[in-house]
Amino acid sequence: MLNKLVPAAILAGSISAALPAGASTFVAWEVSGVDWNDVLNARAWPSSSSAVRAGYPNGTKLQMTGRCMNGVDLQRIARWSASAQRRAVRETWCQIWHDPQRNGNWQEGWVYGRFIRPARF
């Protein structure tokens, strides 16, 4: 178990070095439930009509900020069962921290909760 947590901790530490002051992320969620030939769109704002910044296939680990719409806080629900966490985010948008062009230009984005789940490590 520890062998799986160490790489995640190192990744989270390297990501947090690129964050703006006061922001934090954690890698605890992944893309799930997207059709086999599709991707989860990461959008500029929490809306299906917002600009698409990137697309992520099933299994992609996401750097979550913990912030979701409708008062959901991923850190607050982290000790809940995986199914309870999924129900909490199912009908809302959650914020991610990502690098859409993979050029070091990290930015905030939003994904729809129906297509994410607590990551399996």
Poorly predicted regions are: 1-17
What is the end-to-end distance? 8 Å
Shape: globular
| Nearest-integer average pLDDT | 84
Reading side by side through the largest sheet, how are the strands ordered? 6-5-4-1-7
For this entry, give a set of tags.
single chain, about 120 residues, alpha+beta, five-stranded antiparallel sheet, two-stranded antiparallel ribbon, globular, disordered N terminus
Provide a descriptive summary of the structure in words.
This protein has 121 residues and is α+β, with helices and mostly antiparallel strands. 19% of the residues lie in helices and 31% in strands. It contains 2 helices and 7 strands, in the order αββββαβββ. It has helices spanning 2-16, 82-89; strands at residues 26-31, 40-43, 52-56, 61-68, 93-98, 107-112, 116-118. A 5-stranded antiparallel β-sheet has the order 6-5-4-1-7, sandwiched between helices. A two-stranded antiparallel ribbon has the order 2-3. A hairpin with an 8-residue loop joins β2 (40-43) and β3. 26% of the residues are buried.
In terms of topology, how is this protein built?
Elements: H1 2-16, E1 26-31, E2 40-43, E3 52-56, E4 61-68, H2 82-89, E5 93-98, E6 107-112, E7 116-118
Antiparallel strand pairs: 1-4, 1-7, 2-3, 4-5, 5-6
